[in-house]
Amino acid sequence: MSALERRVAVDAARAAGRLLRDELSGVRRIAYKGAPTNLVTEMDRRAEAEILERLRDAFPDDAILSEEAGAAGGRSGRRWIVDPLDGTTNYAHGLPLFGVSIALQADGRVVLGIVYDPSRDELFVAERGAGATLNDARIRVSSTASLDESLLVTGFPYNIRQTRDTNLPEYAAFSVRARAVRRLGSAVLDLSYVACGRFDAFWELQLGAWDVAAGSLLVEEAGGLITAIDGRPLDIDTPTLVASNGLVHQEVLGVLGELRGG
Question: What is the per-residue pLDDT for 37?
Fold first, then answer.
C-alpha cells in the first residue's frame, strides 16, 4: 500500500465529516430500513456520495462495500469498506456523537483504517504493521487489568423490538461486574475509544462489516485484541465482536459465555 491510499481516504473522511458537521443542525429527512429504530437520512447518502466519488476517481479498479450503496465489484482484489455516517440516530436528533469510517481490505485482511469524528475533529488512522494514531500522535489501549475496574461500552441490535437476542441480559450482567457500562450509539467511535484507552472493552452482537473494518484494525494496531463473542477469530463480513485492551478479554468472554451457554 502506498501513501496515496492513506491520503485519499483521509481526505475523503474529512470532507464527509465536514459536510455532516456543517449540516448537523438542519432539519432531517428520515427514512427507515425495515425497523423504526434503523434510520437513514439524506445526510448518510450525501456523505457516502462524497466518499465514493473520491475513491472511484483514485482507484477505479477497487471494489467498494458501503452501508447505503451496497457492494460494487472491482478487478484489483482490493475492497474499500465505507460507513459514511455511523451514529445516524444520534445525528438525526442533533447529538454530536457520530463518525465516518473508511477501511481498505487487501487479500482478505484490513490494511488501512480511518475513523473521523468531526464533532471533536479527531482523526484515527491505523496501517497494518505501522501502529495507530490519533491526530498523528501514537495511541495505545488501556492498561486496566481487571473487569472490576473496567469501563465498557456496547450497543443494541436495530431489531431489538422483535428479537429475543437483545444484549439486555449481557448489559445487566456487565453493569454489576464492571466499573460502568456506556452506550454511545456509534460502533466506530466505540472501537476508536478502545484503541486510544478511553474504554477498556467493547462488545456487540450484531454489526456490519462497515461498522468494524476500520475500528478493528485501530484496536489491533494499538495493542488490543479483537475476537468474535465466542472467542473465535473475527469475521469482518458477519461480525459479532469483543474488542479489548487484551488484559480483560478473557474475563469479558467468560461472562458472555456464561450468559450465552458458550
Answer: 46
DSSP letters of 46-71? HHHHHHHHHHHHH-TTSEEEETTTEE
Residue type, 19: L
> Contact 169/259 with Cβ under 8 angstroms?
yes
pLDDT of residue 151: 98
Residues in CB range of 89: below 8 A, 6 or more apart: 37, 39, 185
Q: Render pLDDT for 13-43 as a digit per residue (tens, 0 to 9).
A: 999 999 999 888 765 565 555 555 454 567 7
How far apart are the C-alpha atoms of 131 and 219, rounded to whole Å? 9
Q: C-alpha grid cell for residue 62?
A: 477497487
Backbone angles phi, psi at 153, to 5 degrees: -145, 150
Between 68 and 156, the higher pLDDT residue: 156
Q: Residue 3: how many CB atoms within 10 A of its CB?
A: 8
Q: Which domains does the chain have, with CATH numbers?
A: 3-138 (3.30.540.10), 147-260 (3.40.190.80)
Closest CA to 213 of 85, 79, 89, 122: 79
- The answer to whether the CB of 167 falls within 8 A of the CB of 157 is yes
Cell numbers at 229, concatenated: 463473542
Residue 260: CA count within 13 A, CB half-sphere: 18
Looking at residue 90, its amino acid is N
